[in-house]
Amino acid sequence: MSVLTANSRRDLEIHRYPAPLYVIAPVIALVVQALMPRVLGRFAYFDLPLVVTVYFALGRRSPIQGMFMGGIMGLFEDALTHHAIGINGIAKTVAGYLAASVGIRIDVQNTAIRLALNFVLSLFCSGIVVFVHRVLLGLEMQWNWLAMLYEAIGNSIVALFLFPLLDRFQIRD
After folding, report:
1. Of 44, 25, 43, nearest to 34 (Cα)?
2. pLDDT digits (tens, 9 = 90+) for 8-23
3. How many Cα atoms occupy the beta-carbon half-sphere of 145 within 13 Å?
4. CA distance 95 to 126
5. How many Å apart are CA 168 and CA 166, to the nearest integer?
6. What pLDDT is recorded for position 90?
7. In terms of C-beta distances under 8 Å and separation of at least 24 residues, what long-range contacts does 110-119 make, across chains too?
8. Which residues lie closer than 8 Å to 27 by C-beta, 6 or more apart?
9. What is the reported pTM?
10. Among 112, 122, 117, which Cα is nearest to 145's?
11. Exposed, middle or buried, 20 (CB in 10 Å: 0-12/13-18/19+)?
12. CA separation for the pair 61, 65 (Å, rounded)
């Protein structure tokens, strides 16, 4: 009996991109993320480095590469903000690993699945940042669950436009 889905993990397509895109897209995301609070103020409800990390982790389907991409993006984001170095690195490392792990299990070419995964991982990253701040470091952090929800929605909206744009750069065989 024939099956219409991928019968093994190897059958899922691993997307390839030009090598400069692995540098250009994260750098642009980090620069825009650093400039966004100056332009929009407190209404900057998205995390572009997280969206780029999730995109490349889903496309490459490698938890190790997803972890490295998330960790590097998070550390650079921490260096550009007022956070302690490593907090966003931890959160984005976990998000990159989880996104790639989900990408291995299911085919994530469906837009609704990509958006839902981006939304959930955004909330999860925000939760990790709050956990590290308050529990592990013992720092006082003002946070609002409604702002985290808005950020997750904003990340999903940004992903709705950014994912198809980055899909155009895929190397097709």
Report:
1. 44
2. 544 567 778 888 999 9
3. 0
4. 10
5. 5
6. 94
7. 111/160, 111/163, 114/58, 114/159, 114/163, 115/156, 115/159, 115/160, 117/54, 117/58, 118/51, 118/54, 118/155, 118/156, 118/159, 119/152, 119/153, 119/155, 119/156
8. none
9. 0.87
10. 122
11. exposed
12. 8
Q: Maximum distance among all alpha carbons in the chain?
A: 59
- Per-residue confidence (pLDDT) for residue 43, from 0 to 100: 67
Q: pLDDT tens, 97-118?
A: 999 999 888 878 888 999 999 9
Amino acid at 158: V
Residue 75 confidence (pLDDT) above 90: yes
Tokens at 28, concatenated = 């642009």
Q: What share of the chain is helix, strand, coil (3-state, %, to 5)?
A: 70, 0, 30
- The total number of residues shown for the chain amounts to 173
Helix (H) or strand (E) holding 54: helix 48-60
